[in-house]
Amino acid sequence: MDYFFGFKSVISQPEAEPSPADTVLRLVERVTSSTLLEDKRDACRAIKALSKKYRLEVGAHGLDALIEVLIAQPDLETSSFVLETLCNVTSSEVFEEEGVGAPVGEQFTEIFLKKSENVISVITLLDEYDFHVRLPAIRLLMNLLNNKSKEMQEIVLACPMGVAKLIDILSDSRDFVRNEALLLLIQLTKSNANIQNIIAYERGFDQLFQVVHSEGYSDGGIVVDDSLQLMLNLLKRNASNQTVFREESCMKHITPFFQSCQQSEVDAGGSWSIQKISNVHSMLQVVRTLVSPANATQVVSPAQKNVAGCGLLSELCALLMSPGVPADILSEIICTVGESIRGCRSNQEFFGQVMASSSPPRTALVVLLMSMVNEKQPVPLRAAVLYCFECFLYKNDVGQGQIIQALLPTSAEAMQQISAGQLLCGGLFSTDCLSHWLSSVALSHALVSNTNNRELLLRVHLAIAKDVAPVSLLQQAFNILQMGGKLQTRLGILTLLSTWLADSPNSVAQFLKLPNAVAFLTALVASNEHDDQEVLVQSLCAFLLGLCVVYNNDANSNFSKESLCQLITKRIGVETFVDKLAEIAKHEVYSKALKHPQIRINTAADIQFDHEFCRLYKGLEGVIAKAVAPPTSPKGAESPSESELKAVAKYKDVIREQDGQIQHLRQRLAALEGDHIAAQSKIEELNVNVQHLQDQNTLLKAQRNNNVIIDEGETSTPPSESSTDKLVKELEALRLDNERLRGQLEQQQQAANHFVGIPPANGGGIAVEIASAPPASIMDSFTTHEDVQLCSFFRQPEPMSYFNPLEPELKAVQSRLEAMETELGDSQQRLAHCLTANAELKDEIERVKKDQEDLLVLLADQDGKVLKYKDRLKNLGQTVSEDEDDELDDGADEELQFQIENSV
Amino acid sequence: MSYAYLFKYIIIGDTGVGKSCLLLQFTDKRFQPVHDLTIGKQFCVEFGARMITIDGKQIKLQIWDTAGQEAFRSITRSYYRGAAGALLVYDITRRDTFNHLTTWLEDARQHSNSNMVIMLIGNKSDLESRREVKKEEGEAFAREHGLVFMETSAKTAANVEEAFINTAREIYEKIQEGVFDINNEANGIKLGPQHLPSNANTPSGGASASQGGACC
Question: Where does the record place the Uso1/p115-like vesicle tethering protein C-terminal domain (chain A) (predicted)?
Fold first, then answer.
């Protein structure tokens, strides 16, 4: 509350507070520092109040603080104040206080857009239904979009559901909010296909038609127009959305729109309101966008069928014939109808049968053509009729035929009824040059890509006056051309003649028969006037003359192809001719006309070229230039003499022959080249194969070598065998070596043993022997250097020291021998002892043997007795068990064992 | 042609997995081997439509083919809300496209309405020799996240019909169960004209303008 007074004083006495910047600063500080929500809200309210007048200060000092509040979203009221403040700050309109050329709004927009979160928080606020939040939020987005369209579009696209939220507002029940959203969407969809697609996806068309419907169709206010503008944005150059439009069968919503504009027109009984004109115009634009020839054919033709299918075409035709429709709307309707039928046979047929409510009954086509040749009608309307007529005849040979047929003298009823063709021929006689142009161009469209009609038209004769014999149309057209007249007249006639003669040798022949025709054209092309318009006529004449050359069947000996070429070379000069011919293409109107089938005009003087003619010219210009400027005559202007011609003819033959040969050779060459290539590729293939095989081979080898180590049992190949052989051999050699070495070793050992094994007594002898021979004398006997080593061998072992080690050994052996001798004595004693013991034992054995024999006899006796007793027992009837038998056996065994032991 | 229902679908997934080819195969029954990126054209989103029959009822499918590139992710997000079904496509010959499924699914779940039917599609099943993702892996992923799964080939047309039609059937069943609010067109479902009351031809209220009249 305390603060609030301060704020009041600011407002009531601005003079007392000289610096608004200070005030703003104080308020901004309050916004940032105050913890009380109410305080914050009041500060925001105050800033908002100041933001209109001092927006530079508010923006400069407060933008960050405001954005902070915006993102925090403390409560709706505060958000509302912030949004409104930001609206003022970013507004693109320049206030009085500010100097001119200071784009304050744009600068602040730039700062605001630096963080896309800022925009996203504004979009989030759109969820609030509160009027005071939603509306300023929309307006703020609008300001941002106006200032930085591209950046905003990107940010909105990146924001999830961003576009969807905006579309949702279209169904806001408060019209005011909805309309604002509509304006925002129009701005948002400008040249951004992605946003356009999302809106179409989110049922944008449905919603817009709902708005159009609820606002009362054509009689609605500007909101209808806005909706249609948005629809146009969605559809223009967006094939995908056009498909969606068709798939969602939106076309049917357009029909009631046009129905409504007819009904209300009857009620009001007067002129249309400006808004209505605008609404209808926009809706016609929508339809034309869908069927525009600039679209791809696969999009256009279903759209055209759609237009007819939902009754829109008949509705438009009805509107066309109804009175009271403003002229500019009428022209637009005519164009719309034209584009709806262009190249679509069923629609063209439908249109051809539409009748106007006039007496006598006439077809709508005739009525339209009547207004075309009526010079009192506005120019755009007349041009629109021509366009519609063109569309009617486009790819419609039946329609073209009908137009021409009606002009032929054979059809009697044609006299009673005015036909389209008659109207056009009438137009040629009118005094109005625009009528000339329109009629001749219209007539030319009956001939486009229709050779049959070109020849039929030759038969058409016109009765100019009652007492004059009828002249052919061709003659008449040429007459008009000869008479000079205005530029448009001549351009129109030349267009007609060019279309007529192109691709039609008969027409060319007829034309060349006309007296003066060639001379006239040549004179015009050769003339040296440099007037801009005159140059255009000259260029067209050159084109016409060129057509006479290209489509010449040499029927007229005076003007055969060759002689015309000569004429051009002689009278005009090839270069001049080609230059003149190219003049059309250099003209601005030509490129304009080539772009779009519809004639776009503001004033009558603008009309110069027709689209179809430009296409014809584009296709044939090169052909003519080639035909007229033959590459074979380098001499140019000088005409060759007869002998030269003969020579040339001869050479020509030769050349022709050579040509044939060359052709033949070329073919052969081509064939051979083909063969060559095939062969090369084969070679290459084989090379690759070889390489491949080699690789495989080496690979296998490597594998095999590995295998040999692991598994010798596998297929052994020479190299591996040899290697093992080698090893075996080596081994053998080593073994031999070893053997040899062993032998050596043994020898040496023997030698050593020899030395060692010599009895000590003999060793002394040797030593004496060696010692007796004086070492010096031995040394002297060795003279050669090689024997030095041997000498050293003899010298080194001193005899005494050599045998010294043997002496202790000898002693040891002697002592051992003594020990063994004593042992032997011992053993001999033991042996004697043993021998005596042995004798004793032998005696004992003898004795035991005797005992044993005694026992055996006793045992035999016993056995006999036992058997006897057994028999007696058996006889007595007693059973004798086996055991007893066994016992007997055992007893025998024991006896036997005993015997054996003893024997051992 | 009149229909009982209209379902809106979107096709999502990494770039080059064959989304546009699937759409073309389903709507036009043809295969275009030349890979022209959806974004290479003027638009990020292509559109196709076809009529199918489920339970004897004519159902119109409107299919929106999105651009898979990362740069257009935010634009694709705008399409989730209005869709009744989504085909989430990966390429069985490219492991990374399978690995990215989680991101796609998160995106879809976050921005779509909760009832949106998502079908997982492993495309290019004709390229068995170059397969990097096993069918079982796809099945496991689908099971884990509650999706319907199918392997298709836009080239041979194998399972393509089934993929779109099964998704439609699932949506249709949800409608029968009353899960979907069919009066809210923001869900990607629209009632056909013959389902409306007979006086729809004479529009009186605001709503009928969007639905009334016979189809042409």
Answer: 721-894
Mutate to test the interface with A, among B63, B72, B210 (most CBs of A within 10 A): B210
Task: Tell me the per-residue pLDDT of B164-216, one tens digit each, with 9 for 90 and over.
Answer: 999 999 999 999 998 888 777 778 888 887 655 444 344 443 333 333 333 33
Q: Is residue A752 pLDDT above 50, yes or no?
A: yes
What is d(CA A337, CA A367) in angstroms, rounded to the nearest whole number? Answer: 15
* Residues in CB range of A550: below 8 A, 6 or more apart: A620, A623, A624, A627
DSSP B102-161: HHHHHHHHHHS-TT-EEEEEEE-TT-GGG--S-HHHHHHHHHHHT-EEEE--TTT-TTHH
What are residue B150's phi and psi, to 5 degrees?
Answer: -160, 145
- pTM, entire model: 0.69
Strand partners of residue A447: none
* B residues 89-108 lying closer than 8 A (beta carbon) to A: none
Residue A193: which of B43, B64, B186 has the nearest Cβ? B43
- Cβ of A162 within 8 Å of Cβ of B215? The answer is no
Q: What is the pLDDT of residue A340?
A: 94
Nearest by Cα to B155 from B119, B118, B130, B136 = B130
Q: Residue B89's pLDDT is what?
A: 95
Burial of B58 (0-12, 13-18, 19+ CB in 10 A): middle
- The tokens describing A739, both together, are 């053997």
Q: What is the pLDDT of residues B20-68, one digit of tens each?
A: 889 989 988 888 766 555 544 444 457 888 999 999 999 999 999 888 7
Cβ-contact B39, B138 below 8 angstroms = no
Rounded CA separation B188/B10 (Å): 10
pLDDT value, residue A190: 92
Backbone dihedral angles phi then psi of residue A558, each to the nearest 5 degrees: -70, -35
SS3 of A253-280: the string is HHHHHHHHHHHHHHHHCCCCCHHHHHHH
Distances from the Cα of A194 to the Cαs of A138, A658, B78, in angstroms? 20, 63, 10
Q: What are phi and psi of A129, to 5 degrees?
A: -80, -20
What confidence tens digit (pLDDT) does each residue in A269-281 have? 567 888 999 999 9
| Interface with chain A: mutation pick from B12, B42, B47, highest number of A CBs within 10 Å | B47
A228-237, A287-296, A480-489, A778-787: least confidently modelled range: A778-787
Establish if B191 touches chain A: CB-CB under 8 angstroms: no
